[in-house]
Amino acid sequence: MKKILFALLLVFGVFLVQCSSSNNEKNEEQQDTIDTQVSKSEVKRSELAILMRDLYNNTRAYGKNGITQLKPFSKDAYEKYTQIKHATPTDPKNTGEVFQTYSDNFLNSLEKLTHPEEVNMANYNNMVDNCLACHSNHCPGPMLVIRKMKIIKEI
Predict the structure, then answer these.
(1) What b-and-e string marks burial along 2-22, b requiring 16 or more CB atoms within 10 Å of the CB?
(2) DSSP states of 87-154
(3) Exposure check for the chain: N or C terminus, fewer CB within 10 A?
């Protein structure tokens, strides 16, 4: 009887540990994304900010997992991000010819990543470099977060 009770407690304990591990992994994944709709200060984000955060959430895994995880962007995703050119920014001063040039460069680099034969570390990092160029020269942005998106080495 004691052996049966011990075995049941052991199985129950293993079950609890497994459930706990699964929840921790989900929490880590959720903490690694940025809420696209509302900022920490509960301010509603602009259309452009939402698109950029969505782009970050969809590409952050590349920098973490390295080149072996790179997959082509879908044509649908590319079409979605072309809205960056016309989306309303947080600060209206961050529009105009300069922004259009940066967004064209970004979209050209992103478009390359829709073709399987063009998906490589250099082209992916070029896309990230286009983000960095705009955010360092034109409109302020989360430079540290963007830099972390780069792939530093092939795995």
Answers:
(1) eeeeeeeeeeeeeeeeeeeee
(2) SPPSSGGG-SHHHHHHHHHHHHHHHHTTSGGG-SHHHHHHHHHHHHHHHHHTS---HHHHHTTS--S-
(3) N
